[in-house]
């Protein structure tokens, strides 16, 4: 059943063209989506995971690792950050399960732990390249 509820602030607050002009709930659609909606906990975890891609330095590190396995020294040089800063960023990415590492003597090499991350990065780049071409 569809219900209509008047908006309490409808007279005092002008609405933009991209917002509903009335408060209308399609109960059938809500009931269909509700059981499949992310829980608050899952949404928090997903936001933290996706937040790794929101930092330009971490995104550049992930992009570099999508191209090749690299040691911390190489990564620090590529992104123009200190080894300590780069190591902290990599530790965050490792905690989120996005990168993995292996030690080889005194060097530590990182690589992507997730093909999903590689796909997301490359899809975002393709999206931007398409936008620039238009």
Produce the secondary structure layout.
Blueprint: E1 2-5, E2 23-26, H1 27-33, H2 40-51, H3 56-67, E3 70-71, H4 72-79, H5 83-95, E4 99-104, E5 107-112, H6 115-133
Antiparallel strand pairs: 1-2, 3-5, 4-5
From the alpha-carbon coordinates, what is the Rg to the nearest angstrom?
Answer: 22 Å
- What percentage of amino acids are in beta strands? 15-25%
Terminal residue distance: 44 Å
Shape: elongated
Q: Any low-confidence stretches, pLDDT <50, length ≥5?
A: none
Instruction: Give the SSE string.
Output: EEHHHEHHEEH
Task: List how many beta strands DSSP finds.
Answer: 5
Task: Please give the order of strands in the largest beta sheet.
Answer: 3-5-4
Average pLDDT: 87
| Derived structural class | alpha+beta
Give a quick rundown of the structure.
The chain is of the alpha+beta class and 134 residues long.
Characterization of this structure:
The protein has 134 residues and is an alpha+beta fold. Helix content is 53%, strand content 16%. It contains 6 helices and 5 strands. It has helices at 27-33, 40-51, 56-67, 72-79, 83-95, 115-133, and strands at residues 2-5, 23-26, 70-71, 99-104, 107-112. It has a 3-stranded antiparallel sheet. A two-stranded antiparallel ribbon has the order 1-2. Strand 4 (99-104) and strand 5 form a beta hairpin. Helix 3 crosses helix 6 and helix 4 (72-79) crosses helix 5 (83-95). The mean pLDDT is 87.
